[in-house]
Design a protein that fits this description.
Number of helices: 8
Strand content: 5-15%
Helix content: 40-55%
Shape: globular
Number of strands: 5
Distance between the termini: 46 Å
Length: 214
């Protein structure tokens, strides 16, 4: 598979959450998704357990069903005071950016079920103890991000979404997940409309960097 001509730094700084620029009409070959997941399996895993599983959903009816749960979750999210579009409302710089994000969240909320491929990385976890949750989820989330990087390099767009977990049990039953398997993130995957993406505005490094102490 031919990949985009991106340096490592370009790949890392231009892999964006893509919502409005997902091509909903163009099919994505399952072989391409498999290739991205195979790369993702090289990510670190606690104690090298590799207790991960990858759910790839291409069936139209199941995509629509997952999409409906996501739509319901987005509807509730957008109505809340902490939704992306309502943050930093009085900030003349960040406010407009947040409102655009809110608009794009609403857009994807109505169309998640139309995205050609939905990917849900999962992790075996019989119980969620009060202990080291970072260690548990750290054994799957880097792999999910690696998948998104691999997809970007191949002209695919993805989005990091978790709102469907408001209906985690319903989605688990829909997809036949064993009781001990936990969903982590829902990653819509499609070709992008255009491949040019830019680094996003971020806080200045010196506002968030602490060396040796706070």
């Amino acid at each position: 598979m031919t990949t985009l001509e991106l340096s490592p730094d370009e790949l890392l700084t231009t892999t964006r959450t893509v919502r409005k620029r997902l091509d909903l009409a163009k099919p994505v070959p399952i072989e391409l998704v498999r290739e991205c997941i195979e790369i993702a399996l090289q990510a670190p895993s606690g104690s090298n357990r590799q207790a991960w599983h990858w759910l790839v959903i291409t069936d139209a009816e199941k995509r629509a069903a997952v999409g409906e749960y996501y739509r319901l979750a987005v509807e509730k999210y957008l109505a809340g005071s902490g939704s992306a579009g309502k943050l930093f409302a009085d900030d003349p710089v960040r406010g407009p950016v947040q409102r655009r994000i809110g608009d794009s969240v609403a857009y994807l909320g109505e169309r998640m079920g139309q995205v050609p491929v939905l990917v849900i990385p999962c992790l075996e976890a019989r119980s969620l103890t009060a202990g080291n949750q970072a260690g548990l989820w750290g054994s799957i989330l880097p792999s999910a991000w690696s998948y998104m990087l691999a997809a970007r390099a191949r002209g695919l767009g993805t989005a990091w979404t978790t709102l469907h977990l408001n209906y985690e049990q319903e989605v688990s039953e829909l997809l036949g997940l064993p009781e001990e398997v936990r969903q982590t993130v829902l990653i819509p995957t499609a070709y992008t409309i255009g491949t040019g993406f830019k680094p996003a505005p971020r806080q200045p490094l010196d506002e968030v960097l602490h060396v040796n102490a706070w």
